Structure formats: structure tokens, C-alpha cells
């Protein structure tokens, strides 16, 4: 019998064999491989991934040579899933909970986590591998060769192991294809408007670039009560989606010509 169990046979204390998209060489296509995912250790959670999205950060690190992620590695950090098993000392989530993994830790005890001015946990700072010991929970099923973890998440796989400080529990019923955006793009954009810029009610703001983060910034500005939210993007298709997600005015720089921003935004 192989060392790892299949997904149908797994138990909470044994490895799981599943499929993952593995980055073996920087800039080369990912390869689907059978991998073994070890059971969670203390303070860790094993998650069955329901949905994962592609962030440009994944593309950036996929291209890099000689800088993390090391190879082979499993990329991906925007995801939603269900807790399959938990290690010792995990009380924040339970088996069956819907969760999103996030790449920034929140230990809840360090000065930075207790401060309103920072979200960079100093108790569990970013490091290669799992945050508490630097090891990995992934290996190739056929050879046992280790596969590196990516910024504490590694979501391009059917199962992953994440430290509980990198997990946020969701209420049941949140669509996973939308929930997976919460762990990076949406939280980055809304957080920028809500906490960093602290947009004031009745104010006017401009959002340059209406990608996933920019659209989330627009939502955050609307939530903060901004009166006028000007979206700026060179893609004319962003006008309609921007309007749905919070912008009041749209500017395509290619269309401005000699007109002022004020004249153009009303068009």
C-alpha cells in the first residue's frame, strides 16, 4: 500500500494524495503532478481547496529566477476552501468550516497585530516554508522529493496546509468563486481606502487603474461615504463594471485630448 492515502481514503492524521499544478522551472508552464500533502502539525489547518484565482503576484513570482519561490513549488494565494483536518492547539476553526487562507499572518498577540497602525505580523514574519518551522507539507507522491510552499498558502492544489494564523473563517453560503478574491485583491483594495487613505465621507477621490484591486478601492471608497469616485483606466470596458462597483465618473486618458479632467469625467 502506498504511503499516502487517496482522497477517498484519507484520515485526519495521514497524508493525502491529490493533484497540484507544480512550478518546476521559472517561467515555464506549470505541470500537473500527483503530490502528497502531509497532515497538519500543531497550529496548522489542512484545507480542501474549492476555488482559487490567479493574482498578478503569482505571475511575477512564477517568472523570477534565483529568488523565492524556490523550485519546485506550488504557487497560488487567493483561494477559498473547507477545513479537512486540524492540528493540535487549533481552536479558531473546525473541520467543515469554510475558510479563506491569507498570505499575511495574524497571530493576534504581537505588538503589530494589536496595533491599529500595522497589519504586518512580527510574531510570525514572512519566511520560506511554513511560518513556525520553515518546512514544507508538500512532496511528489512518486519520489518523495519536497515541493516548496508559496507565501504561506500554495493554493494551486486540491489540498493545502496553512498555519491557523493565515486562515479566516467565513459564514456558510459565501460563493467560493467570489470568496477566493477576499484573501488578496479585495482586502488589499478595500483596506487601502478604509485604513490607509481613511477616505472621508463626502470627499472626492480618483482611482487609477480599475483592475481587481482598483475596483475594490472604489468599493471601499463607496463604503466610506465618498461622494465622487473617479475611475481612470485605458480600457473602455472598465466603465460599466466600474459603475456597478462604485465609481461615479470614468476617464479614459486616451480620450481626454485638450479637455480638463473635470470635463472628461462627466462624459
TrEMBL record:
Protein family membership: Belongs to the zinc-containing alcohol dehydrogenase family. Class-IV subfamily.
Residues of the Alcohol dehydrogenase-like N-terminal domain: 42-170
Domain of life, per lineage: Eukaryota
PANTHER family named in the record: ALCOHOL DEHYDROGENASE, ALCOHOL DEHYDROGENASE-LIKE 2
Pfam families: ADH_N, ADH_zinc_N
Catalysed reactions listed for this entry: a secondary alcohol + NAD(+) = a ketone + NADH + H(+); a primary alcohol + NAD(+) = an aldehyde + NADH + H(+)
UniProt name for this protein: Alcohol dehydrogenase
Keywords: Metal-binding, NAD, Oxidoreductase, Zinc
Localisation: Cytoplasm
Example GO BP: formaldehyde catabolic process
Cofactors (names): Zn(2+)
One Gene Ontology MF term: zinc ion binding
Subunit structure: Homodimer.
The Alcohol dehydrogenase-like C-terminal domain, residue ranges: 212-257
One Gene Ontology cellular component annotation held by this UniProt entry: cytosol
